[in-house]
């Protein structure tokens, strides 16, 4: 077994280990050195214990001897944490970094070091929610439950402003147990009554704020909300764009973190007021200028791409063309772009929509208290807005623009972006990895344990070549590859077949090298 340790040590000492993750290990020791104590068993076993053995003709063995204090002390001086030890197994529980494992392996009395699988693979949930009801699928499509909710990032302390039409039902339907509506404003009729006219805004709200366990859990059930009516239901006039800007300014004034806008403009009651597709540059429509101004205050502005796909307009509706905001298109349950979802890009070539989520067959509340499916980017947008609130909660020092970038680079089509799906469907677990990384910090590897592939999450946009080596516990090379020209994330299938077990993954990028312990299942 000493050969095993030397091989690992040789591998690990070749590299400079950066930020190290602490994992749990069993440290098995060589034969006990104090066997002479077996001549005096009464020094470490009670008379009653010895009598039990004698009655069953069981001899006192080396496994009955305690582990020496010298060995325990030497290990304790190396590792992050020393826990219980077993004289029977001749093993000690430790929590250690990869670098500390190397140091342990150099101790002459250490025979083998293995992960404590039951602890290492623990996925204990701190999620206060257990049953998502009908909304589980639309949350799982963006890895929200596993990536954020299961870590208790549920949108708490985030304030989301919804700019929409009426919110009929939001004050009468029992849809939530956690978040609160802290303010309302009506920029169409004046005053604070938003619970009249349309129920569209309530359905939008429910995708985020619903919190009825076993029935429907939204994407940000612990966030607070501001309901702002800016849309006049029975007409379409340029004034509504100014209503929107006034609503965004109000959201800013009360400290909203996020604006969700499931509204879009291109054609009006008076054809003379219409925009053209050539105006989709983010700088022509007044509402797009307002959206950019809101983003400049640090608000994360999330807007629907529009439902003009396949029609005469076909493209984005304003303000979805604005830069510095997050534009969301629609996909169905299979991740296929909805036919009605408005297409990008902008006329100046920017990627829009930025991302997509469930907008076809999305579950929402209706004003009569029923839960039903609905279609439209009106619902994919708030699903992402709520998820963004949870993501931001997980990384409170991030900026709104950091959140947008994290969602983009974590998405399914980041390297195959197109005018229909944009960067694709975000993965909230990857997005959290991105935000927890800093330029020059350790590359995140997911999933771990892994099936037949690994996904690497890079902390920056550097395209430096990345050399990968996967070695087993004997130091033998299992797979290797040099990956070129990648930014932010890439997928690697190490080999056609890899046996289940523990491996060391060496990642070399420029002058930085790290070792990550991975587990094949």
Describe this structure as you would to a colleague.
Helix 1 (2-13) crosses helix 4, helix 9 (239-253) runs parallel beside helix 10 (286-296) and helix 12 (400-409) crosses helix 13. Helices cover 24% and strands 23% of the residues. It folds into 3 domains: 2-32 and 67-120, Alpha-Beta Plaits (2-Layer Sandwich); 136-435, Peptidase S8/S53 domain (Rossmann fold, 3-Layer(aba) Sandwich); 449-520, Sandwich (Immunoglobulin-like). The strands form 6 sheets. The protein has a 7-stranded parallel beta sheet, sandwiched between helices. Strands 2-3-1-4 form a 4-stranded antiparallel beta sheet. The protein has 521 residues and is an alpha/beta fold. The longest helix is centred in the C-terminal third of the chain and has 18 residues, at 377-394. Strand 14 and strand 15 form a beta hairpin. The chain is elongated. It contains 13 helices and 22 strands. The protein starts with a helix and ends with a strand.
What attributes characterize this protein structure?
521 residues; elongated; Immunoglobulin-like; 13 helices; alpha/beta; 3 domains; Alpha-Beta Plaits; Rossmann fold
Question: So what's the overall shape?
Answer: elongated
The CATH superfamily name of the largest domain is Peptidase S8/S53 domain
| Helix-strand category | alpha/beta
Q: Going across the major beta sheet, what is the strand order?
A: 6-9-5-10-11-12-13
For the record, the CATH class of the largest domain is Alpha Beta
Tally of strands: 22
Give the averaged pLDDT, no decimals: 88
Architecture per CATH nomenclature, i.e. the level-2 architecture of the largest domain: 3-Layer(aba) Sandwich
* Rg of Cα set: 29 Å
Q: Could you give the distance between the termini?
A: 24 Å
Indicate the proportion of strand residues. Answer: 15-25%
State the helicity in percent bands.
Answer: 10-25%
